[in-house]
Amino acid sequence: MYGAVFNLQLYVNVMTYFDYFSHSLSSGVKIAVHDHRVEPIMTNEGLVIKPASEAFIEIRRKDYKFLPAPYTAFGNKTCVNKPDYSSSRCYQACWNEIIQHKCGCTDFLSKGNGPYCSYHDYQTCSNPTFWHLLLTYHKETCDCPQVCHYTTYEYSFSTGTYPSEFFVSQISAISGFPEWLIRTNFALIRIYFKDLSITINEQVAKYENAGDIFANLGGQLGLFLGASILTITELLEFIIFLIWSFIHRVKKKTKDDQSKTPVEIFKPTKY
Fold first, then answer.
1. How confident is the model at residue 69 (pLDDT cuts 50, 70, 90)?
2. Shared domain check, 172 and 132
3. Any idea of the CA torsion for 119, 124, 129, 134, to the nearest 10 degrees?
4. H-type helices in 154-228, by residue range?
5. Count of alpha carbons within 13 Å of 238, Cβ hemisphere only?
6. CB neighbours of 45 closer than 8 A, spacing ≥ 6?
7. pTM confidence score
């Protein structure tokens, strides 16, 4: 199904009265639409949905397929062809390990196994280290090549006031929340596909077998030299015949030399 009627609907209570320090100074909910194998970096990605709003998020799917080794996919690099691997998960696991080793604690937004950082550790060590890793991707330490097959979602975004004055009293009667709380904390999010089409960007090998190489070679010769495969065959035939004739003459000459008997010349002796 696709369209705004058939969609994923999320009714959210933002609970602004529980706001705490974060990477953003705004209040609301942040959403990222991503492939299930990808671990999104929410500090650097996603859409912000403010309280008292209804958001329509229209998405379109794009698939990217690259050839595994020995082909190169990203410049002069190779990609990883594993179904459960993603470079984002690899980077985040590596970053968490670096932060735990440097700060002795785990950022509360990460999935580390150590104790959570205190507010002081977060401000003085965890947060600055994380942003340094995010900006540099720490390529010298974290070896996280790109995956060969991944999916992204493009989206368009629009919002409206939620709930309307007509529905706020009815929602209050059904949910039991006071109207002031609904007006300042509730949000409705609709996520849906624009259509059921998928855009596929696929890397294809230029030469897959010897036939492709000879076909391209023949085309280039015909274009620049006016030659063809038949011309090359005739040229090879002439070279082979020339070599065979040379070898035949050498053998014949050698045989003739061996058939000749030596002639001895005697001088008469005078007595």
1. confident
2. no
3. 70
4. 165-175, 179-185, 210-224
5. 6
6. 32, 34
7. 0.66
